[in-house]
Design brief:
The protein has helices at about 15-25, 40-50, 65-75, and strands at about 5-10, 30-35, 55-60, 60-65. It has about 80 residues and is an alpha+beta fold. A four-stranded mixed sheet has the order 2-1-3-4, with helices on both faces. The model has no long low-confidence stretch (mean pLDDT about 95).
């Protein structure tokens, strides 16, 4: 079961930074949804997160923006 959902965009360098951190650190339980190709994910992010900004990490019905904040959170709370 995924503990986190990471909303990303196709050409977003900040999204790539977070994705690279997840991969390099073996963080498990993160479902990645690309809002550029997944209309449902985009609609969900806008409706519940309040904006279309990516990257966005959803956890426990909370939405965290800013790549460095997401990386810091995953360092503390991500499963390895």
């Amino acid at each position: 079961m995924n503990k986190f959902t990471l909303y990303v965009g196709t050409v977003c360098p900040y999204c790539k930074r977070v994705e690279r951190f997840i991969e390099d650190n073996g963080i498990k339980g993160v479902e990645i949804k690309n809002i550029d190709i997944d209309q449902e994910a985009r609609d969900h992010l806008i409706e519940f997160g309040g904006k279309r900004q990516v990257p966005c990490l959803m956890y426990e019905d909370k939405y965290l923006y800013e790549s460095l904040d997401i990386i810091h959170y995953l360092k503390e709370h991500g499963e390895r």
